[in-house]
Amino acid sequence: MGSLTDVTRSRPSARANSADTSARARKVRVLIVAPSIRYLGGQAIQAGRLYKQLSLEDWIQVDLLPVDPKLPAPFGWMQRVRYLRTVVTSVAYVASLLLRVARYDVIHAFSASYWSFLLAPVPALLVGRLFGKRVLINYRSGEADDHLTRWGWHAIPLVRLAHTVVVPSGYLVEVFGRHGITAVPLPNFLELAAIPYRQREPLRPALLSNRNFEALYNVADILRAFAEVQAAHRDASLMVVGDGPQKQALHELSTQLGLRNVVFTGPVAPSRMADCYAACDIYVNTPTIDNMPNSVIEAFAAGLPVATSDAGGIPYIVRNGENGLLVPCRDTTALANAVLSLLADPQLARRLAAQARSDVLSRYTWDVVRDQWRTMYTAPGLASA
User: Fold this and answer.
1) Pick from 324, 350, 351: which is nearest to 338 by CA?
2) Residue 62's beta-bridge partner residues?
3) Residue 239: enclosing H or E segment and its boundaries?
4) How far does Cα 243 stand from its chain's mean position?
5) In this structure, are strands 206-209 and 237-241 parallel, antiparallel, or unpaired?
6) Cα(215)–Cα(173) distance, integer angstroms
7) Which of 40, 57, 158, 163 is a good FRET partner for 13, with 20 to 30 A between their CA atoms?
8) Contact of 200 with 303, CB cutoff 8 Å
9) In what order do the strands lie in the sheet with 237-241?
């Protein structure tokens, strides 16, 4: 039988274990619902970064549920059949929500527009509400205004199922405000260690584009602008990273324009994008619709001066003549002239790149946004007791 001293000594350990259990019990339990990284895109990249960083925090228990679950081997063939793929993936996704949502306090659903909105965040909002959970929608599409205007009769009531609407830019705050919805801005962030920085001295005519080959990203205008740049700098090169439905058309356009030194890399995993930034000296971007592109702030972080169209929310992160150069959408000559002005004035390029890097450090890192996410999940009225 142990002595009284032995029993007394055991009590602090018991209290410590009780405190540890209590601390674990107080953790807010969050389920992030987002596309998997199998499909390269801004939502998946930001969801993955957020999950990774939150997993290191001691105040939260976080898990990630993909909206595009991969079916087990015997059924995998169904996800290779058009239309059937959408049906079986949606059924598997909703089933996983029903099985898992009850374990969490907060359901954090990433969202794009149109059909993606209906197929991905809406089931999470409905199931979250069904189980009495607090739900947060993280809306990230530059097509928000058109979506809420044309589909507003059902999209707006569905968005309002969320207790909180989070968006990555002031641009979307304004868009949602015009439709009577209050949104909270919380910007994208980078993992700086994954994107080496260097000053471009001397600045070479080595251009980079890394938007997917879809109509709204308008990569064709980059090829047209590059033709003008190459007319002035015969050694100019262009790396085109991406994939999508316009792939063949873009290859054909490059041939028609007689471009030299153009490399189409195909899709590149986020973990390899740093190599692409490192290989180039000027970042170009020509979307007609956009919000807060990860690629622009990644170029900022890497030290590339940026020349971009002024679509959507881009002017909220790129200030013309201050941390980058803005040109009107679909004005390929203006884009070419912006690139040529950087090459003609290295001091301008150096000043823009330095300010852009400073903006990244002050606005777009985990250290900056960590407390904002903690408040978002734990503030009264969002996190469950």
Assistant:
1) 324
2) 30
3) strand 237-241
4) 17
5) parallel
6) 25
7) 57
8) yes
9) 262-266, 237-241, 206-209, 282-285, 306-309, 325-327
Six token digits for residue 171: 């641009």
Structure tokens at 377: 């999940």
* Of 380, 378, 381, 379, residue with least CA distance to 30: 378
Query: Looking up tokens 């000559």, which residue turns up?
Result: 333
Environment class of 248 (CB within 10 Å of its CB; exposed 0-12, middle 13-18, buried 19+) = exposed
Q: How many CB atoms lie within 10 A of CB 145?
A: 19
Those residues whose C-beta lies under 8 Å from the C-beta of residue 230, and which sit 6 or more positions away, are 236, 259, 260, 261
Q: Which amino acid is at 162?
A: A
- Sign of the alpha-carbon dihedral angle for 99, 60, 171, 134: positive
Look-up: residue for tokens 């089933």?
95
With the CA atoms of 140, 378, 131 and 69 taken in that order, what torsion angle do they form, in degrees rounded to the nearest 10?
40
Give DSSP secondary structure letters for 169-187: SHHHHHHHHHTT---EE--
> Which positions ≥6 away from 37 have C-beta within 8 Å?
44, 45, 48, 270
| pLDDT value of residue 41 | 74
CA distance 13 to 229: 71
Q: What DSSP string describes 326-371?
A: EE-TT-HHHHHHHHHHHHH-HHHHHHHHHHHHHHHHHHSBHHHHHH
Res 244: pLDDT: 94
SS (H, E, C) 86-112: HHHHHHHHHHHHHHHHHHCCEEEEEEC
Res 14: pLDDT: 45
Q: Give pLDDT, residue 84.
A: 76
- Per-residue confidence (pLDDT) for residue 6, from 0 to 100: 37
Average pLDDT, consecutive stretches of 10 residues, N- to C-terminus, the chain (385 residues): 36 46 71 83 89 96 93 68 76 94 97 94 97 96 95 96 96 97 95 93 97 96 98 98 96 98 95 95 97 95 98 96 98 98 97 98 96 89 43
- Phi, psi for 356 (deg, rounded to 5): -65, -45
